[in-house]
Amino acid sequence: MQYLHFKKNGVRVKVGQKVKKGQHIGFSGNVGWSTGPHLHIDLYLTDKNNNYQTLPTKFKTEDNTITDELKQDAVYLKDY
Fold first, then answer.
1. Which parts of the chain sit beneath pLDDT 70?
2. What is the pTM of this model?
3. What is the distance between the alpha carbons of residues 80 and 26, in angstroms, rounded to a whole number?
4. What processes does the entry annotate via GO biological process terms (predicted)?
5. In a domain, 80, yes or no
6. What is d(CA 3, CA 24) in angstroms, rounded to the nearest whole number?
7. HSE of 59 in the Cβ direction (CA atoms, 13 Å)?
């Protein structure tokens, strides 16, 4: 798993660290080839040749809907 597009010096976890549900992992930013601040998550397995296989992922939205696809340009918030 990797997280991308954090703001500069905005990461609050270390490589290999396990994270917990609701844990603050960092501050989203607008870096790289992005059109605005957001958190990009890649979930995958790699084989011995470093070929990537994307893993299916489910998301639970704030209204408790379970989905495998989030809507483009939608905002999903967690009230801490």
1. 78-80
2. 0.56
3. 14
4. proteolysis
5. no
6. 13
7. 13
